[in-house]
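Next comes one such specimen:
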Amino acid sequence: MDSLGDAGADAWEVASRRAGVIAGQAAQLNADLVDLMVEVLETNCWSGGGIRSPEHWLQLMTAVSPSHAADIVAVARRKGDFPELEARLARGTVSLDQLVVVARHVPAAYAESVTEFVQAATVSQLRRVLPKYLFEPGTPGPVEDPPDPVVPVDDAPKLQMGLRGGRFVLRFDANPLDGALVEQAIREAKDALFTAGDPDATLADGMVECASRSLHQAAPASRREHYRVLVHLDADGNGWINKRGALPSRLMRKLTCDGTLKPVWTKDAKPVSVGRSMRIVPERTRRLIEDRDGGCRFPGCTVTGFLENHHLFHWSEGGATDIDTLISLCSRHHREHHQGEFSIEGDPGIPAGLRFTDRHGLPIERDIPDEIPPPDHPPPEKQPVRGWIMETTSINFRPTPDTG
């Protein structure tokens, strides 16, 4: 390959030619990653052992960024919708970034129509045009007769909640305006969890976060104490919530990893006094651990806020509460660990000192061979010219005619 140092005035041309070859090779390798993710999605082999999603699995196994992993999975989920563009990705003349914009915005019926435009456009041009293009414009329907007069009804919100089969079940019914208010509050809390580093936070997680915020903000302190969720523990490791029956052992172990205790002193099996509230993990220790870890310690997890402390040697079994035996986990991975999805061992004081294994004893980590073979693709085709000035308002895409 030509050396830029020896190219003189032609250095720009030499560098451009090399960049084109590397771009084509990168596209071919990304096509391999897409094909791999198609198989992973079909077999569902990404799941288990604390892995939250296909994107999380790809981040962990290939060390790509969360956004790049999301792009590859997005294209894999649309595999087969854009056969010509997928073939050009494999030949190296369309980039993954170009195909990502298509996969996120273009219906499969328009695959043939957008192909040449995609190859000739830059990613910036695709991002300007495709999200705003109305691929399937609606047609005005017939004017309907006015509806019958509405009979007044009870429009107050209704809420039902209780235990069913060992699970807490909640049903909320409201008018659209009150419903929209509740929905937005839950979505805001879900977005706060996302901003804190949990990209897989659900609306259910957002609802729990809303409840947690409300209880933490209750004032005065006596009112906040009145509505505290109380878990009763005994010396044998059993626990229950008021009169709602025993809690599963996995929940007990999670709660006694990181919580607030208020001991109740008994005499002759009768309560006689209530002690002062105390955290299992003191606030100063908690801050030191979170500062050391910088986020959830599970491999590939990006959550940095709303963390919980986990005892490597369980507190209820005599495990010490100090920085050498505690690690930070997000609520999802803390819960899944106590459900038996994966185990943790090692020294948390060393950046790579922890070992995570799934329920089958297999390590949760990247599998890098001692020698990485070079890719065996054919030479990529020449890169097309992209980015000509275009009047995007005059672009017209049409769906492929149905010949079936």
